[in-house]
């Protein structure tokens, strides 16, 4: 079984202001396996930053339990509050790197000095610090730039420095809080690919906070959707993309999920008695196979495509078709069995699904 490196249980964070109480995080349980790239998406104000700051107790929860790498950092229920001692907390925090939208580099220092700064309390000798800082810069693709100053670098390069700095104390976890939000599309892709690379090379667990589903699609294996302080949906990337239940998830995913709204407005009313709508999702080698032609030839079932889309999830093309299948019930049943045998995920688009997802814009 995979090891759960982050275990947040029943986390609540409430901010009390003069006349106002803000429940920023409500009863959130989030478990992240070692080696996951776990995307947390949501609109601004959903509570994403507050939730991830709980992981290293930069934000103390109002109640709940925080366990990181098997150590309980914080636990509070009605009777008791237990928090790990300051010294151990400081050590634990060093094992959790963080990067942000703003790179927060020291502008008067060269980039190698910026990285070395994070090693000040590492116990290493000055020469070892310099060597390690250089290796980290090499790791993030900045060899040869060590004596540049932050202003001499592009945004993407500055974020690489911030990543090298975040990795200085060999963290097992990296929290990325909107780290690509200020970057142009090309740099965004490069930084995301670097995070994926570090995840593969170092076994680094990444928590990726973002409002951009494209970032999640590119590198995450799991995703949670936050809305008004709660996680409203979560799962494996493919599962969420093929079978999102919540309207807000569909809004984030766009593409085929949005097509459901169009179906409600347009297609469903036109269905004949011997017709049903299905969403077919297929990946890998299936993508190019002429499956629908076989449905007609082998099973006498007509399949009329009303929407098609291809997404690339973690480098794998995933196709989605919405089809109206027409034929006798028995033939339809056989055709669906055939599709299943081809490892195609079939979701019947029922009236209920359409109503639930229908108002997505
Ligand atoms: N220190 C604080 N004091 C009071 N309210 C806060 C504080 N920090 C966050 N909040 C409020 O908590 C809610 C959640 O904010 P949070 O920053 O976690 O959301 P977010 O999903 O990360 O959005 P963004 O991407 O805009 O940061 C918001 O209503 C915010 O105004």
Features:
five-stranded antiparallel beta sheet, 361 residues, single chain, disordered C terminus, Rossmann fold, binds adenosine-5'-triphosphate
Q: What report would you give on this structure?
A:
It is globular, with a radius of gyration of 24 Å. It has 2 domains: 4-247, P-loop containing nucleotide triphosphate hydrolases (Rossmann fold); 254-357, ACT domain (Alpha-Beta Plaits), CATH 3.30.70.260. Helix 4 crosses helix 5, helix 10 crosses helix 13 (351-357) and helix 11 (291-299) crosses helix 12. It is α/β, with parallel strands linked by helices and 361 residues long. Helix content is 36%, strand content 31%. The longest helix is centred in the middle third of the chain and has 18 residues, at 185-202. It binds adenosine-5'-triphosphate. Adenosine-5'-triphosphate (ATP) binds at residues 15, 22, 24, 42, 44-50. The site of adenosine-5'-triphosphate (ATP) has 11 residues, from strand 2 and helix 1.
């Amino acid at each position: 079984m995979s090891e759960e490196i982050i275990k947040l249980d029943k986390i609540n964070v409430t901010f009390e202001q003069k006349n106002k109480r803000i429940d920023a995080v409500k009863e959130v349980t989030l478990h992240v396996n070692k080696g996951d790239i776990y995307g947390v998406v949501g609109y601004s104000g959903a509570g994403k930053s507050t939730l991830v700051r709980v992981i290293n107790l930069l934000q103390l929860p109002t109640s709940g339990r925080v366990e990181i790498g098997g150590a309980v950092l914080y636990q509070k229920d009605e009777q008791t509050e237990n928090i790990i001692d300051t010294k151990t907390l400081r050590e634990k925090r060093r094992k959790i790197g963080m990067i942000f939208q703003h790179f927060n580099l020291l502008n008067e220092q060269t980039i190698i000095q910026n990285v070395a700064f994070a090693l000040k309390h590492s116990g290493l000798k000055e020469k070892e610090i310099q060597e390690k800082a250089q290796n980290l810069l090499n790791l993030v693709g900045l060899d040869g730039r060590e004596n540049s100053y932050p202003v001499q670098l592009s945004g993407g390069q500055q974020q690489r420095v911030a990543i090298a700095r975040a990795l200085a104390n060999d963290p097992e976890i990296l929290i990325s809080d909107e780290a690509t939000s200020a970057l142009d599309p090309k740099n965004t892709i490069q930084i995301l690919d670097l995070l994926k690379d570090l995840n593969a090379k170092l076994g680094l667990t990444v928590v990726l906070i973002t409002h951009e589903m494209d970032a999640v699609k590119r590198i995450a294996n799991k995703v949670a959707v936050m809305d008004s302080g709660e996680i409203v949906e979560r799962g494996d990337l493919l599962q969420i993309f093929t079978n999102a239940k919540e309207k807000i998830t569909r809004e984030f995913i766009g593409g085929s999920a949005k097509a459901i709204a169009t179906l409600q407005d347009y297609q469903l009313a036109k269905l004949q008695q011997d017709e049903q709508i299905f969403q077919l999702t297929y990946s890998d080698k299936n993508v190019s196979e002429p499956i629908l032609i076989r449905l007609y030839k082998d099973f006498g079932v007509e399949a009329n495509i009303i929407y098609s889309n291809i997404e690339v999830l973690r480098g794998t093309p995933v196709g989605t078709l919405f089809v109206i299948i027409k034929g006798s019930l028995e033939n339809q049943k056989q055709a669906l069995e055939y599709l299943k045998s081809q490892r195609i995920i079939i979701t019947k688009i029922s009236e209920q699904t359409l109503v639930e997802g229908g108002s997505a814009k």
